[in-house]
Design brief:
It is built from 26 helices and 24 strands. It is of the alpha+beta class and 734 residues long. The strands form 4 sheets. Strands 5, 6, 7, 8, 9, 10 and 11 form a 7-stranded antiparallel β-sheet that branches. Mean pLDDT is 75; it is low at 78-89, 198-203, 217-221, 310-319 and 718-734.
């Protein structure tokens, strides 16, 4: 019975659990080899820690039984991990081959310069052995191809050219060619690692030892700070962090106040003010002040730990365009051998045939996509956008429809005071707000907390009432300096004999039509004002919608489980014409299916658990916000750790720019190869020049891709204010 378990199948994507991948992570690379030949296979992501394998197929060709059959048999115990040239050990080997090859070539050049006797047969044998040592990575790759473990590629071409050189006793030529190719490999490895190094430096916690606050031990009863290793800190511990130090844990501030630079996590350009009760993240920097923080998560469980983990997973993912590149390389190899054989048949010149093999090596074409994808993923991570793989980076650039969840995505997801209406000349707007806060001081309802918080933000003082009573479902009744204060719904006022005048009824209807919840404030028997409380739209959300349309997104949809009135009020503010309200998770799924049936490539932007099914079904799921549910974060293909909506059009623009760079890379690689083939066939190029040309095109492709690391999306600026409707005369104060 197979140990492979099918976890989910939807929209051309299948998630399997493969026990041998979890038991032997070093063999995870074999999954790719077993699936590459399956018809309809597009892309793959492997999670060795959990044994999960996510496979993207052409939907009509998705055959789960065939996938299970391909992965059913565990590899033999002796099967080594699939070699790679990007591990630390292999880098040491690359450097050793470069040093040895370079030293030998320098020695040979010196002998010729000094006109010493020619190299003897013994020396020639030693030179041949060094040549073989220098070409080990290429020979191993060719051997895997011969054994059927991988498709013929660049390694096969290089090995064939080297063997021809050794047979012709052109040892120095062979060594020179391999040394130049190793230089190219080494430079490519360094460039490909640049992104990961930059991300790790940006996101690393950076503190090996921290100040742990332990209770007792001091005469005044205060905690004692003890310096300990970061590894000793566990959830629940309290740590102290001072100016210019990085916060080592995710947690809640329990003391002190400080400005914290959270750019590495949330992408916010300006430091945020943190005090007791605020949530802070590991890897952020205290720029002024000091904090004591109760740890909620430590180590790999922190936000920064999860970010690094996701970025590492993204590096191993492949976009469909990368699969095309791989297939291009595989198909080009037989053509290269055919051209070399044809050249030899016509010219009877083995050197010229070897030159054709070297020129035809499709290294640059093979690098065209992965280097660009890697650089773009690093660019996104620097800006707080976590792209979980090349598949999704390509997909987001091709979206034609974007579906936004409302609450917590386009809006803040919490009530805010958005309007204050005064109905009498005896009280100003600030006094109405202060009295409302006085009545709500001891209430725990979210609307009450929103009123109190807004009063504090306006630096207003709320009078302290002498007594209060909660009227369930209606509001609060309080006694203030011998007077009665009512704060709540119109029903609360009617219960206490206070009627809404015609003017108040007009304002109530107007506020409700704008999606605001109305709270009435009555002083004794007089209605003195109204408050409008709503889930305010995020800053710049209207500009984000315009940016998406400018980028070619033809459908922008607002999708919410909220009431139609509230949904349409938000949509009107943002210029969104298509609204679906009262949508349950099943309804959200159906909308995504309908858009896909119409031929759209759909991106879903959400943050809640109820958005997870739609995030999974959409072509690209985007989790929005630092407070996204764990289900949404895990289901989404792109995660935005902060609350900056600008990251949505920015990642679309980044994807499209990346695809342009990929096309440039292909043009550069194929163009150089064609010129080299023409020159090689005409006999005007020797193997050394062929190797140089080969390396030049590869390095040029890598350099062109590296520009993506520092690419800045070209998007219009966004205003910083919260979006709301225009003020209503002088009665309504923001």
């Amino acid at each position: 019975m197979s140990g492979v378990v099918v976890r989910s199948v939807a929209a051309g994507r299948a998630r399997l659990t493969v026990p041998w991948v979890w038991a032997r992570p070093g063999s995870a690379g074999l999954v790719d080899e077993r699936l590459t030949g399956i018809r309809g296979f597009r892309a793959l992501r492997i999670f060795p820690r959990t044994g999960s394998v996510v496979i993207w197929m052409v939907p009509d060709l998705l055959d789960v039984d065939r996938l299970v059959g391909a992965l059913e048999e565990a590899p033999p115990a002796s099967t080594p991990a699939k070699p790679t040239r990007s591990t630390p050990d292999s880098s040491t080997g690359e450097l050793a081959r470069l040093v040895v090859g370079g030293a030998v070539l320098a020695f040979v050049a010196l002998r010729r310069l000094l006109r010493r006797p020619r190299i003897t047969a013994g020396s020639s044998g030693l030179l041949g052995a060094i040549t073989l040592f220098t070409g080990l990575p290429f020979f191993r790759g060719a051997l895997r191809s011969l054994r059927g473990r991988s498709h013929p590629g660049t390694d096969t071409l290089v090995t064939a050219a080297t063997v021809i050189s050794l047979v012709l006793r052109e040892n120095v030529v062979a060594l020179t060619v391999l040394w130049l190719l190793n230089i190219g490999e080494f430079l490519q490895t360094l460039t490909l690692r640049r992104t990961r190094r930059a991300i790790e430096e940006l996101l690393t916690i950076g503190e090996e030892r921290v100040w742990l606050v332990r209770e007792g031990g001091a005469e005044d009863g205060a905690g004692v700070e003890v310096e300990v290793a970061l590894e000793e800190v566990v959830p629940g511990d309290v740590v102290a962090v001072y100016k210019h130090h990085r916060i080592p844990v995710d947690g809640t501030v329990v003391g002190g106040e400080a400005l914290v630079d959270q750019a590495a996590i949330t992408g916010e350009a300006l430091p945020v003010y943190a005090r007791a009760g605020a949530e802070v993240y590991a890897g952020t920097i205290v720029t002024s002040g000091s904090l004591t923080i109760r740890a909620a998560s430590v180590g790999a469980d922190t936000t920064v730990g999860r970010i690094i983990s996701r970025v590492e997973e993204a590096q191993s993912d492949r976009a469909p365009i990368q699969t095309v590149a791989t297939r291009f390389t595989q198909r080009f190899v037989p053509v290269s051998f055919a051209l070399a054989a044809l050249t030899y048949a016509i010219t009877r010149d083995a050197r010229r045939a070897m030159t054709m093999l070297l020129i035809a090596c499709p290294c640059a074409a093979g690098l065209a996509t992965p280097t660009a994808i890697s650089a773009a993923i690093g660019n996104g991570a620097r800006r707080g956008t976590l792209i979980k793989g090349g598949t999704h980076l390509e997909g987001i650039g091709r979206v034609t429809a974007v579906v936004f969840d409302k609450t917590g995505t386009l809006t803040f997801g919490r009530p805010l005071v958005t309007s204050v209406v005064t109905l009498t000349d005896r009280f100003t707007a600030n006094e109405v707000l202060s009295l409302a806060a006085s009545g709500e001081l001891h209430a725990r309802h979210p609307l009450a907390q929103a009123i109190v918080a807004h009063t504090e933000e306006q630096h207003l003082r709320a009078p302290i009432h002498q007594a209060c009573e909660v009227v369930l479902g209606m509001g609060m009744r309080a006694e203030l300096d011998g007077t009665r204060l009512l704060v709540g719904s119109p029903a609360l006022l009617r219960q206490h004999g206070v009627q809404l005048m015609e003017e108040a009824q007009g304002w109530t209807e107007q506020l409700r039509s704008g999606g605001e919840t109305v709270i009435c404030i009555a002083h004794d028997d007089d209605l003195i004002g109204l408050l409008g409380v709503s889930d305010a739209v995020r800053s710049g959300a209207d500009t984000v919608v315009r940016q998406l349309r400018d980028l070619g997104v033809s459908r922008v949809v607002l999708l919410t489980g909220d009431a139609p009135e509230t949904a349409h009020a938000v949509a009107d503010t943002l210029g969104i014409t298509e609204v679906h309200a009262h949508a349950l998770p099943e309804g959200k799924l159906q909308l995504i299916r309908d858009l896909q049936t119409e031929g759209h490539t759909v991106a879903m932007v959400g943050d809640g658990t109820n958005d997870a099914p739609a995030l999974a079904l959409s072509d690209v799921g985007i989790s929005m916000g630092a407070h996204s549910s764990h289900v949404a974060l895990e289901t989404a293909d792109i995660a935005l750790p902060g609350d900056d909506l600008r990251q949505v059009p920015a990642v679309v623009e980044l994807s499209r720019h990346t695809l342009r760079v990929v096309r440039q890379n292909y043009g550069l690689a194929i163009g150089v190869n064609l010129l080299g083939l023409i020159a090689g066939a005409g006999g005007s190029m020797n193997p050394v020049l062929a190797a140089l040309l080969h390396n030049t095109s590869s390095i040029a492709v890598v350099g062109n891709s590296a520009r993506l690391v520092n690419h800045t999306p070209h998007l219009p600026p966004i205003a910083d204010d919260i979006l709301m409707a225009a003020p209503l005369e002088d009665h309504r104060v923001r």
